[in-house]
């Protein structure tokens, strides 16, 4: 009976670990993804961000790539 409790505790521990790991991965992905970072949902919003001087140049390059891909 004790082995069953150990097994259940191990499975629950694994599920909690995977849940926390998944949240960390999603958070890191959101930080690196310009679509989520600047809430881009249309070509117009991307164009506005390309004209915005407060957006860093490396983010503008990614936005430009996405803007050009969407137009094709």
Characterization of this structure:
It contains 4 helices and no strands. It has helices at 2-32, 34-37, 43-51, 57-71. The longest helix is centred in the first third of the chain and has 31 residues, at 2-32. With 72 residues, the protein is mostly helical.
Average pLDDT reading: 88
Number of helical regions: 4
SSE series:
HHHH
Structural class: mainly alpha
Radius of gyration: 21 Å
What oligomeric state best describes the polypeptide chains here? single chain
Q: What percentage of amino acids are in beta strands?
A: under 5%
Number of beta strands: 0
User: Biggest sheet, in brief?
Assistant: none
Helix content: over 70%
Query: Uncertain spans, ≥5 residues at pLDDT below 50?
Result: none
Distance between the termini: 63 Å
> In one word, what is the shape?
rod-shaped
């Amino acid at each position: 009976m004790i082995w069953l409790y150990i097994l259940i505790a191990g499975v629950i521990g694994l599920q909690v670990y995977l849940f926390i790991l998944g949240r960390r991965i999603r958070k890191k992905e959101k930080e690196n993804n310009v679509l989520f970072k600047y809430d881009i949902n249309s070509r117009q919003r991307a164009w506005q961000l390309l004209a915005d001087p407060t957006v860093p140049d490396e983010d503008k390059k990614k936005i430009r790539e996405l803007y050009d891909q969407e137009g094709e």
